[in-house]
Amino acid sequence: MRTLLLTVLLAGSVSFAQSSTSEPGGGVIEAPAETTKVLGPFRADARFTIDTDILLAYVNLGVNADLGVVKLGPGVLAVGAGLDFGFCGTVCLLIGAVLNGSYGSRNFFPQARVSYHLELPAKSGNALQKIDVYGLVFGGVVVSSMGFSATYQGVQVSASDTGVGPGIGLGAGGSYFFTERVFVGAEATAKYASGTYKNVVVVTPPNSNVDFRWRDEYTSWSLSGVSLRLFIGFRI
Q: Model pTM?
């Protein structure tokens, strides 16, 4: 009798285990696949970026954010916005010193972004589980300016150039999450940005309330090129 009871209990346990790992149609439910840390819909990544060289000749700082919108194919489509601020560093300081005055340049680049974050397979425990890779396109308006001022034998000379032009580009980036939400990474971009400066030169003689001004609009400027920006960010 005990043998028969044990047999019935064992058969019931096996039947319950099989039913708990099977679908109603008889198929076995597999464990969910492990993937990379892709940006999901209704999640956002905020970044602080920097692009410069070891001599700090020109420095470009920026902030941007991407918001996941919808899962599309093997990844997630995201939209976002950003603002880049660039300024001349050591090179302009050197030029100002040589000319015995002050010299500088800067630009602002507000932009819209569209990115596609790719979901890749990764085994459990693999370092690939901590990355998010994406491609992007961006565009906006660039405001660029330059300025110089100096005094020579009592004569004040100043020049200012201001221009507005389109800025568009594309690129690719990757983030590595060293905590659940905080990440570091890099973004390589190719950008086209150019326009025409409106130049104003002002000369003021010593002890005079009258100055002389010259204007023209033919000087062109360009910020086109390829860059690699490093960033640190936070997933919301």
A: 0.79
